[in-house]
Amino acid sequence: MAEATSDIREGQQPDRTASSPIVVISELDKQFGKLRAVNHLSMTINAGETFGLIGPNGSGKTTLIRMMVGLMRPTAGTIRIMGERVPSTRIAPHIGYMTQLSALYLDLTARENMQFFCNIYGLRGKQQKQRIDEMLERVDLADRANDIASKFSGGMKQRLSLATALVHHPSLALLDEPTVGVDPELRRTFWDYFAQMNREGITIIVSTHHLDEAARCTRLGLMRSGMLLAQDAPQELLRQSGKDSMENAFLYFATRQQEMSKEIHS
Amino acid sequence: MSLARTLALATRIIRQILRDKRTLGLIFIVPLLIMTLLYLVLTNTSSVHTLAIVRPTGPGSDTINTLITDLLPGKDKLNTISIPANQVTTTLQNGNADAAIIFPPDFARQVLAGQNPVVQIELEGSDPAIASAMRDLTASFTRQLGLALSTLKAQQNQGGQAPITPATLAGPIPFTINEPHYLHGGPQYTFNDSIAPVFIGVFSFFFVFILTSVAFLRERSQGTIERVMVSPLTRPELVLGYICGFTLFALVQSVLILIFVVFVLQVHYSGNLALVFLVTALLTIGSVNLGIFLSTFAQNEFQIVQFIPLVFGVQVFLSGIFWPIAQLPGVLRPISYILPLTYANEALRDVMLKSADIGQIAGQLAGLLIFALVMVLLSSLTMRRQSA
Q: CA B200: distance to chain centroid?
């Protein structure tokens, strides 16, 4: 309960941008045995933005996202989405979740996969058909709608997976490394989808370890060893670090964090 | 709890199974093949066996002896010899006959007087297959003889004038057939009297377990379970969706097995289909949840296969499919009573062979219900663990 009060204080802090926060994470910890996967992390994600979680493998991005969607419980700290403390069944209908794995029923067709997810999100009838057609068109799979998913290439599976994650028109889409193992051309297409989703009012939280993708996010959270190094707009992070590339900026913030923790320890 | 979401899941499972032709074959064709094989092995029609008959000798026995000779299967199917009563044991012992039917000397008089004489069947018993075949054969022969005698009696009572009507045919068999006596060994279940009914339970339990555990394993390894858990679908809906989807196939399968057993293998059946369904449905609920539960301890399909000896090996031997539980060593009997198939087998035999009503199998239904509830509990515990 003590954490809940601090959560409210955190949420009330005026944010740099004018838009309202959709996700407020406050002093979050996740401990796996001796490993601290997420370390005292606080961040705010604003409605309508594309928030990029940037960091190397093992920096805690997936753990953070899994806690946000309610698949894992934090060791300490709180997550609030749309004002509801996670886990909450009330926000479930408004959340879209895409995993690293293209989570599909491989023995069903593209359309049947979409139908299943529509049905469990309560999207039915004519509206369902319309939305499925629209999403398949958007990920360029309209002509393969009735093919079995197991026959799809890796990229096609990834596209279908994205379409199923967004078929119920969520307010918040959490995409965990959607561009891992995806060729550069498709990666660019994916980022075009994300931009379009933003325009439709969908807030996106996307994790990646491709630093070149950072520029396409509204704001970034730089993560390393379960800690948040910095969170701000890409240009702002470049300016603060005085570096010309995101790679160098990331290294700058990482070094600064290490020096800070050394100071604390000594 | 949303019915629509549960149905969405059940529909998806049904679609997945319908798409997989190999799985459909596993559910619907394999049981029939196995039953046919068992039928052929256990009824052992390949060789001609010998039946010894101790014929009635008292007054009025001629009619009955003619009837016996007429009703016995032909020489191509069965050898028959007539022996005196004091040679039954030696004849069986020497291997001159595989079974004997013993009629009391004044059988005819007792039948006419309505004194309900006792007919005893002796089985040699050292070869279970022959013993089982002879048991079926003598049972069907005595049943026919009983019907013929009651018809004959009815005709005589009406002065031989009235035509034979179904009402006169339905009269009780005018003699008692004692439980067969075994010279060696003991009663094994025979195909016709006991094995056919239990296979409805055995097959539905087996295939539903395999299919659920593999389906659930795939949900985990393909990552779809996480998507489902993030969605508004709740865990009870998830479990219920699985139960609905698989129960449908289990019920269709039991109808198919029933039709096959009754019409193709010509097994006597006189039960209430609704009760057969009830037993199958309860068993399936247990089986689906056992599948979900055990699938959390498997990393791949091969590890599911490794569970089969544990789940089925034990049940095949200890649930009374082939050997009555009463014949098992005392240390094993308590194990039998924690196995779901023990209850399903007893219930299905009682319903299909003895036309038991719901009250008579209440105990077995309770056993199945308890098993189902324990499995539901276990499966929901493992699902909570996954999301921890």
A: 7
